[in-house]
Amino acid sequence: IPAAWAGFVWGILDLILRGLSGGSVLNPVQGFLEYPIAFTLVGLMGLTFASFQKSVRGGEKVKASGYAFAGIIVGTFAKYFIHFIAGVVFWGSYAPKGMNVWIYSLIVNGGSALFSTVLAIVVVGILLTVAPQLFIAKDGKSLSTKAA
Known about the structure:
Number of strands: 0
Distance between the termini: 10 Å
Order of helices and strands: HHHHHH
Oligomer: single chain
Strand content: under 5%
Mean pLDDT: 91
Structural class: mainly alpha
Low-confidence stretches: none
Shape: elongated
Radius of gyration: 18 Å
Number of helices: 6
């Protein structure tokens, strides 16, 4: 899946450029989980891509929106589930005194997940409305097969 590979590469870059230099890596396991693994899981958004693109080509914007939104929710949930688990296991000691680490991680990571999901849905929704051609290859073929 090209989307998963793109997420993996982005995760490695983010690990190097922000994680290691910003002090966000506590140990190799946490660093690997929260960067390459978590960002690779964002690639699960690509599971709905073929149906999404077919709907866009067919001019079915509502159906395309449904596929896009489903992909966004699946990919975002998968990524932030990893962050949630890492929050409990690796970052739990940073929870305020007396606060359950599960609740702490849910608040910290859940807020970020919610914001990311809403932002992605809004951006994709706007692009589908004003520029659906951005999601179709110029030759009419699937964008996912162009990279192969």
